[in-house]
């Protein structure tokens, strides 16, 4: 079974953001936007909620901090305590560098892994839809025509008034 999207292509990011905001205001929420690079203001125009990726980054960083600190504390004061010059076995200032590095490492790796999983960018995955020139120099705004209130003529006119260079349906995998 294949899915269909109504896609409007734009030459400028300003036209894309303008069309997304106008479509949302008119009651035709866009399904997705495809751009060759990040476009500021597009998420607000599409009405997307704030990303929860920052919470994932914070959680992974906190886990890295706690895991590194507790591991160093356990190995130096519980598992194999050594008396070196009368210093206490759990010397917390000595743990700061490794703790910081582990926090940064796990925050970065965890955030990238969460992003790949959320975006379904698995090894060997193929794009569901192929929209011409969207990764080079075009911007695309996609609508699901299965929505009960979808009106092709109104959406086409709305996109063309915002500067769409082409509009039409694209077939793809669901």
Number of strands: 4
Query: What share of the residues lie within helices?
Result: 40-55%
Q: Give the CATH level 1 class of the largest domain.
A: Alpha Beta
Number of continuous helical runs: 5
Distance between the termini: 7 Å
Largest sheet: 4 strands, antiparallel
List the uncertain runs.
none
CATH topology of the largest domain: Alpha-Beta Plaits
Word description of this protein:
This protein is α+β, with helices and mostly antiparallel strands. It has two domains: 3-48 and 129-172, 2-Layer Sandwich (Alpha-Beta Plaits), CATH 3.30.70; 53-118, no CATH class. The protein is built from five helices and four strands; from the N terminus they run βαβαααβαβ. It has a four-stranded antiparallel sheet. α1 runs antiparallel to α5 (152-161) and α3 packs antiparallel against α4 (96-118). The model has no long low-confidence stretch (mean pLDDT 89).
Descriptors:
45% helix; 174 residues; Alpha-Beta Plaits; 2 domains; alpha+beta
Write the layout of secondary structure elements.
Elements: E1 3-10, H1 13-26, E2 32-34, H2 42-46, H3 53-79, H4 96-118, E3 139-143, H5 152-161, E4 164-172
Helix pairs in contact: 1-5, 3-4
Summarize the model shown.
The chain has 174 residues and is α+β, with helices and mostly antiparallel strands.
């Amino acid at each position: 079974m294949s899915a269909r999207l109504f896609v409007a292509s734009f030459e400028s990011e300003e036209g894309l953001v303008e069309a997304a905001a106008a479509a949302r205001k008119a009651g035709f929420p866009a399904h997705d936007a495809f751009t060759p690079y990040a476009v500021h203001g597009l998420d607000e125009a599409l009405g997307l909620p704030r990303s929860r990726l920052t919470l994932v980054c914070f959680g992974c960083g906190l886990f890295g901090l706690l895991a590194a600190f507790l591991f160093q504390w356990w190995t130096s004061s519980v598992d194999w305590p050594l008396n070196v010059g009368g210093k206490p076995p759990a010397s917390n200032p000595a743990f700061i560098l490794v703790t910081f590095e582990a926090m940064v490492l796990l925050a970065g790796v965890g955030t990238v892994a969460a992003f790949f999983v959320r975006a379904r960018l698995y090894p060997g995955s193929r794009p569901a839809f192929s929209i011409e020139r969207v990764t080079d120099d075009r911007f695309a705004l996609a609508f699901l025509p299965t929505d009960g209130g979808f009106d092709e003529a109104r959406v086409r006119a709305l996109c063309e008034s915002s500067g769409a260079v082409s509009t039409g349906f694209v077939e793809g995998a669901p």
